[in-house]
Specification:
With 700 residues, the chain is an alpha/beta fold. Helices cover 36% and strands 21% of the residues. This is ATP-polyphosphate phosphotransferase.
Length: 700
């Protein structure tokens, strides 16, 4: 029985003030799954949304479910922030996740597959191959697949292998004895990750323009070749998801990079948290797979399709049919931008430069670093890097700067989840060129996005002096994601902001005490306190009968202290509108608690990623852009900043494009009700969405 279930003789309890975080994440993925079912979206983009859900679910089990299971193991009476016993929360999560997975594969089988076939894209399973396709498939298997496979027949000398996290595996049911007279009933084949999961058949072999074969179909057809002399009774694909949280002991660590490299190797073999098997897998085999991985029946997800569904995303790039994808989007160039020349410093001195990606080009940010790398008047460059990608012109520019003798300092966050290995590689390259590489602060991820250039300038008759230029952003310095994540970036020469950014760099790279900042809010020191003060200030204005308004957009709203202050502000009469892309633990629209709060989620072509805080403040209209979500980890356990937007034009742009457009153009919006359920706004689907409205705003 769940901890919140009550006796029928008791009065109905008040609804909890907080919603469940994990159920909120699953609800977010349902909103993404709805995109895969939207007939207005091109076919291959609908497939992409389906794959995104699969990728999100992988991470959900690797992190959130894994953490709850760890918590339960250490304390059976532990509770979640919304008041559920962890055991009860895991039960609800399992029920909801199973339902979501069933729906995901129903969409695949009844929606995506027929849709793709109708536009000339077909998946051919082994039972459907023609004789010519059979010959091609066997030749490919023998040439490209068989040489790299290592079958394992299970016996006392070959126990069940501990398979890699999220790897594709095949359990082969066998009958017979091997060359040594051993009875063999089960073999395991692990598919190397180097093997492609999706293969394109030659066009002349298919009736459709594109015919694809999954690696699992090849294994189904030819797995017997790996067990000659034995009878193959069945081939069943499975996948194990493991706890992927990295553990680094803050007290014992002496070299973060070395410690992390060891943890990355261990990540592939963490404790199992989920088993996925193909539909039709015999129950006896399912039971054995569960037992071998220490899992319970509710941890098993039997799926009607490929267990590694995320790999189908490769098809989007393999099909050269522009009409089956979103129309290409080219970010708008910045008007009157001088390019990668020293004149860009004059432009920034003249007025702040605000960029809204992906509607505005990311090129000016790269231009700034490239120019700093080559300009003889630039002395130093300091930058934080959280995610940059494996191929980055921006990182190459930093390396060039170091080669050119600039003082280059890079705060490289080695603990950026799933980018740890990439960042380790960049660290090695930067250090080899003489750059100073700092791995953040142990115990506090450096999530702030900051770039500072120090330049010697001679203005007029005065002696040359040093001047700082800063770029701060809500998003990563990652060129690829800048094309499909929405983020704000601000270039400024404001002396107070530049001094604050410099102070934050000194705190990270040195050992100085926190000093109050003039303009910025900073986690883990002042951001939360200032945020709560700003909320309370709006409540005071409302209490005095003045107009009061809080509008914000974040990726997640999970911090209880912020939620409680928002409830108080709502009761005081403050108009509160929140754009929350993902999980939201605040319950909007509850009479006497939050009737003045509206919560909306925008799901569309681009990933909503920017964080914007707006406070009316008696007409002053304070606007902040930030790297921080309203979550405990961002406010207490990360280095984050929030930067005020002071330039009137830039401020107006953030308000219009970061906030208002999403309430004015609801075509890609969902609204949350008091029960935590998400629904489309009335008439929303027939109206333009905010992403398209912003694309159109850049059109000539």
């Amino acid at each position: 029985m769940l901890s919140q279930v009550h006796s029928p003789d008791m009065p109905d309890p008040l609804p909890p003030r907080l919603l469940n975080r994990e159920l909120g994440i699953l609800a977010f993925n349902r909103r993404v799954l709805a995109q895969a079912q939207d007939p207005a979206i091109p076919p291959l983009e609908r497939l992409r949304y389906l794959c995104i859900v699969s990728s999100n679910m992988d991470e959900f089990f690797e992190t959130r479910v894994a953490q709850l299971q760890d918590l339960l193991e250490h304390d059976v009476n532990s509770t979640t922030p919304d008041g559920l016993l962890v055991a009860d929360a895991l039960q609800l999560i399992a029920e909801d996740a199973h339902a979501l997975v069933r729906e995901k594969y129903r969409v695949l089988q009844d929606g995506i597959y027929p849709l793709l076939q109708s536009v000339g894209i077909r998946f051919a399973t082994s039972g459907q191959w023609t004789t010519a396709q059979q010959r091609w498939a066997r030749a490919y298997f023998e040439r490209e697949v068989l040489p790299v496979l290592t079958p394992i027949g299970l016996d006392p000398a070959h126990p069940f292998p501990k398979v890699l996290n999220k790897s594709l595996n095949f359990a082969v049911l066998l009958d017979g004895t091997d060359a040594f007279g051993r009875n063999v009933d089960l073999g395991i084949i692990q598919a190397p990750r180097a093997l492609p999961r999706v293969l394109a058949m030659p066009q002349e072999l298919g009736e459709h323009r594109y015919t694809f074969v999954l690696l699992s179909s090849l294994m189904q057809a030819f797995a017997g070749d790996l067990f000659p002399g034995l009878k193959v009774l069945g081939v069943h694909q499975f996948r194990v998801t493991r706890n992927s949280e990295l553990f680094v002991d803050d007290d014992e660590i002496t070299n973060l990079r070395t410690a992390l490299q060891g943890e990355l190797r261990a990540r592939h073999y963490g404790d199992a948290v989920r088993l996925e098997v193909a539909a039709g897998c015999p129950q006896a085999l399912v039971n054995r797979l569960l037992r071998e991985n220490g899992l319970k029946p509710e941890d098993c997800y039997q799926v009607d399709g490929p267990v590694n569904l995320v790999r189908l995303q490769a098809i989007v790039d393999m099909v050269a049919e522009p009409t089956l994808k979103y129309a290409p989007h080219t970010p708008a160039p910045l008007p009157h931008w001088p390019g990668a020349t020293p004149e860009l410093f004059e432009r920034i001195r003249a007025a702040d430069v605000l960029l809204h990606h992906p509607y505005d080009a990311f090129a000016p940010v790269v231009d700034l670093v490239r120019t700093a790398a080559r300009d003889p008047d630039v002395l130093a460059i300091k930058q934080t890097i959280y995610r940059a990608g494996t191929d980055s012109a921006l990182m190459e520019a930093l390396i060039e700067a170091a080669r050119n003798g600039k003082e280059v300092t890079v705060v490289l966050e080695l603990m950026a989840r799933l980018d740890e290995e990439t960042n380790i590689n960049w660290a090695a390259r930067l250090e080899a060129e003489g750059a100073h590489v700092v791995y953040g602060v142990v115990g506090f991820k450096c999530h702030a996005k900051m770039l500072m250039v120090v330049r010697r300038e001679k203005l007029g008759r005065r002696a040359p002096q040093l001047r700082r230029y800063v770029h701060v952003s809500t998003g990563n310095y990652h060129i690829r994601t800048a094309s499909h994540y929405t983020d704000f970036g601000l270039m400024t020469a404001d002396e107070a902001i530049c001094a604050d950014v410099n102070q934050v760099f000194l705190e990270i790279t040195g050992s100085s005490q926190f000093a109050p900042l003039r303009r910025l809010w900073q986690s883990p020191f002042s951001l939360l306190d200032n945020l709560l003060k700003a909320i309370r200030n709006e409540a005071r204005h409302a209490g005095a009968g003045k107009r009061a308004r809080i509008w914000a957009r974040v990726n997640a709203l999970l911090e209880p202290s912020v939620i409680e202050e928002l409830y108080k502000a709502s009761k005081a009469g403050v108009e509160i509108r929140l754009l929350v892309r993902g999980p939201c633990m605040l319950r909007p629209g509850v009479p006497g608690l939050s009737e003045n709060i509206r919560v909306r989620s925008v799901i569309g072509r681009f990933l909503e990623h920017s964080r914007v805080f707006y406070f009316f403040n008696d007409g002053k209209q304070d606007v902040w852009i930030s790297s921080a979500d309203w979550m405990e980890r961002n406010l207490f356990r990360r280095v984050e900043i929030a930067t005020p937007v002071l330039d009137p034009q830039a401020k107006a742009k953030v308000i219009a494009e970061g906030l208002k457009v999403h309430w004015r153009c609801p075509g890609n919006a969902w609204d949350m009700d008091a029960q935590g359920q998400w629904k489309r706004p009335r008439g929303g689907r027939t109206r333009c969405g905010s992403h398209q409205a912003l694309i159109d705003s850049r059109s000539p």
